[in-house]
Design goal:
84 residues, alpha+beta, 5-stranded mixed sheet, two-stranded antiparallel ribbon, 1 helix
Amino acid sequence: MNGRPRVEITRGRVTGSSITDAKGTRPVPVLVEDRYFVDVIEPDGCRIDIWDGRSYDAAIAEAQEAAKDWDASGVLDLVVGGAS
C-alpha cells in the first residue's frame, strides 16, 4: 500500500444490537436490515468507520467526499467488487 489512505464501501446485515452502560449489557430490538459502511483505511492498516446508512447511493457520495477530505488514493467499492 502507498503512503496514502484509501476509502472502502462495504455492505453488511445488522441482525442484533446491544447497549452497555452502568446497568450492564442488554439486547436492543432491531429490524434485520442491510446497511452500507464507509471506512477509511490508513496506510498502517488501521480502519476508521466514518459512515453507515441504508442507502447505497448515499454511501457512494460519502465515500467520494471522504476520499477528498482524507486525500485518499481512491475508493474501493467492495459491494460491487471494483473501484468507484
